[in-house]
């Protein structure tokens, strides 16, 4: 049996697009490939007439249903899997260099999980801060000049998703922890690790990068993220209890209090 991507579980997310025309062109590209869910975060200019002019009447229904958000965190909160697109490569940006390979890998994930494909601003692309929300990164290979027009990039990714199939499908991925659940987990984990001195409180993000990558590779389910949060809360409660007992017993930071 051959299976393909579940289109209704795929959303295209545009982070800070600068021009309304690119939003409209992206909507048209989505419509060509049968995708309907478009999210726009902090657009530079919002001009509905200019968006519709490039979307044409064919993609008008997509424009009508665009969801707008003022922050990327809020936009990605309901998604179980987030894919970031990037033209820049490097050690800090391990990427899948084949959109086709990415698309095939998303088939079992998108069956039970909402998936976001994230595109950055036209001039700079996604920042390292934006990429913290991503489970995977994908690069569209080019020759000589790496920068693509936003709508072109959306079209290429949507085409690969629309045409991907698996003749011998992998087991379907169960519901993964949503972005909001992971963000809550990372917040509590960071606090707990600072509490025990594992993470430098002066620059916690630097120390958390590898920990985030570790958990991302595990593709945590909702229940598993809840377990990690529970462990973090117990660590903090234990620390508070031990500190309180130390004060009661006349100790501070493990040393007797000088009564003289």
From TrEMBL:
Gene3D superfamilies, sorted: 1.10.8.590, 3.40.1280.10
GO function terms (MF aspect): RNA binding; tRNA (cytidine(32)-2'-O)-methyltransferase activity; tRNA (cytidine(32)/uridine(32)-2'-O)-methyltransferase activity
Compartments (UniProt record): Cytoplasm
Listed EC numbers: 2.1.1.200
Catalytic activity: cytidine(32) in tRNA + S-adenosyl-L-methionine = 2'-O-methylcytidine(32) in tRNA + S-adenosyl-L-homocysteine + H(+); uridine(32) in tRNA + S-adenosyl-L-methionine = 2'-O-methyluridine(32) in tRNA + S-adenosyl-L-homocysteine + H(+)
Annotated keywords: Cytoplasm, Methyltransferase, S-adenosyl-L-methionine, Transferase, tRNA processing
Domain tRNA/rRNA methyltransferase SpoU type: 10-159
Top-level taxon of the source organism: Bacteria
Record-linked CDD domains: SpoU-like_TrmJ
One GO BP annotation of this record: tRNA nucleoside ribose methylation
InterPro entries linked: Alpha/beta_knot_MTases (IPR029028), RNA_MeTrfase_TrmJ/LasT (IPR004384), SpoU_MeTrfase (IPR001537), tRNA_m1G_MTases_N (IPR029026)
GO CC entries: cytosol
Recorded family membership: Belongs to the class IV-like SAM-binding methyltransferase superfamily. RNA methyltransferase TrmH family.
Function text: Catalyzes the formation of 2'O-methylated cytidine (Cm32) or 2'O-methylated uridine (Um32) at position 32 in tRNA.
Subunit structure as annotated in this protein's UniProt entry: Homodimer.
Protein name: tRNA (cytidine/uridine-2'-O-)-methyltransferase TrmJ
